[in-house]
Amino acid sequence: MNVFGTPIREYLPSLALAVLAVIYLITGYGYSLDARAIPVGIAWVVLALVSLVLISRTKTAFGLALNQWLNAGEDRAAAAAHADRPLAKELMAGAWVILAVVMMFVIGIFYTVPAYVFLSLAIRGRRPWWLCAVVAAGAMAMIWLMFDVILQLELYPGLLFES
Length: 163
What we know:
Elements: E1 2-3, E2 6-7, H1 12-28, H2 33-57, H3 61-70, H4 76-81, H5 87-107, H6 109-124, H7 129-150
Antiparallel strand pairs: 1-2
């Protein structure tokens, strides 16, 4: 079955991510004003990006134009050859995003970002462990510098570290 010329299965990963973002958004509004600033902001950005992805998947004139604009540097011949992306690959990509959201919820933003960077570089990027550790440590230092030192904004601590 198609919706706007696109098989429904191509919308499913994005729709699942949208549902998780809405849950994250609802949960975020239950926190104090300072604690919810980042999680709520992230959830709104995710919803906006998911909307763009959903529209760009349609075979409408606007959807095709949006897809071309969002992927301006894409090799059209290569994209046509891989037009029917395997669902397993799309689900795996979505699983990485879900992993990040779950990690943020459980261990907080400060620890999630370096852990996620390390895991994605090591597993998906197949980079050397030492490089993954250096880049993850750099990400953690930048988060600390930006949010703690410069902005003096409390990041969501996660369920494990909430007091």
